[in-house]
Structure formats: C-alpha cells, structure tokens
Amino acid sequence: LPICFPVTIAFGNSGKVINTSSTYLATRIFFENNKYIVVQNLNEVISYNYDGTINTLFGVNGKTSLVFNSNLIEVKNAKVVNNSLYVFGRYGASDYTCVLYKMSLDGQLDSSFGTNGRVIIDFGSTSDALNDVAVLPDGSIFGLGYNNSNVVIAKWNSSGVLDTNFNGPLS
C-alpha cells in the first residue's frame, strides 16, 4: 500500500530540507516509524522528523557516525529488515576491507552484533567491498561484494559471527 501523507503537515521550508551541516552525498532514504532515515555515502546516518526537522532522539543529536580505526566508512548501501538498519560498504585508506553495521531504528549500534554493532571481513585484496546483504528469517546474513574483480559472498549468523562452515555456491 502507498504511504499517504496528510496535506496539512508542512515539510521543511516550502517542501524541502537543505542540511548544510552535512557535506556527504545521500545514498539511501527510508521512512520508518514516521521518521526519515537518510544514509550518506561516507560515515553518517541522519534521521529527520516527519516535518523535516532533525530527529534529535536518533543516535547523537540526530545522527550516528560510522568510523573504524580512524577511517571513514564508504557506504555502498543500506537496508531496513525486521526493525534493524543494516549499513554496509568498505573502509580503509588504500587497502579497503568490507564492513557491515547493524543498528536500531533509533540510531544505536546493536552491541549484540559483531563487535559493537560491526563486523568486518577481508577477502584478501586491496579493493574489497560489500554491495548488498540478504537477511534470512533466522537472522543469518549473506553479504555480496567484490575483491578487485571477483564476486565474493560471505555468511554471518544473526549475532554477526562469520559462518566458517559456509562454502558458498561458487568456486
């Protein structure tokens, strides 16, 4: 069913919001629990209220920063599954490694997932990245990405532990 918005709610300034405090490109937007969640291409997830104002109850003052070992996270994409937000991509300066974050819809990293809400996996090249994830009904996660020009697939259990019994469909 389509989402219907009451015409009496004003959004931003004349129907638009310009966030001058953020200089990163937005890559994804979700509308969950009457809030907008915007995922940006480098290290930030920001939430807006229904009227376009910053949702200060999300993360810290409306945003969750994603940094690992002083490296910005290059976000490839994000998904909302079962009231959790999965943000994935890569981090690094010249040797990129895959990263997957899991957080609640209020911007808090899920401490029961991986290490402080984050899992990393190195596929052994200098150009690894996760481009997509699929979350199964049992909570296990498949990650699809690349290393240099090779397709890579990884599997984690619901708590973010790499499934070392997974041999994958490709060889």
The total of helices stands at: 0
**Low confidence ranges:** 4-8
Q: Structural class given helices, strands, pairing?
A: mainly beta
Please count the beta strands (DSSP E, at least 2 residues each). 12
N-to-C SSE string, H for helix and E for strand: EEEEEEEEEEEE
Gyration radius from CA atoms, angstroms: 17 Å
Q: If strands are numbered along the chain, what order do they take across the biggest sheet?
A: 5-6-7-8-9
Mean pLDDT: 83
Helix content: under 10%
Largest sheet: 5 strands, antiparallel
Tell me the span between the first and last alpha carbons: 41 Å
Strand residue content: over 45%
The oligomeric state of the chains shown is single chain
Shape: globular
Structure description:
The chain is mainly β and 171 residues long. The protein contains no helices and twelve strands. The strands form three sheets. A five-stranded antiparallel beta sheet has the order 5-6-7-8-9, with no helix packed on it. Strands 1-2-3-4 form a four-stranded antiparallel beta sheet, with no helix packed on it. A three-stranded antiparallel beta sheet has the order 10-11-12, with no helix packed on it. The radius of gyration is 17 Å and the shape is globular. It starts with 25 loop residues before the first strand and ends in a 15-residue tail after the last strand. Residues 4-8 have low confidence and may be disordered.
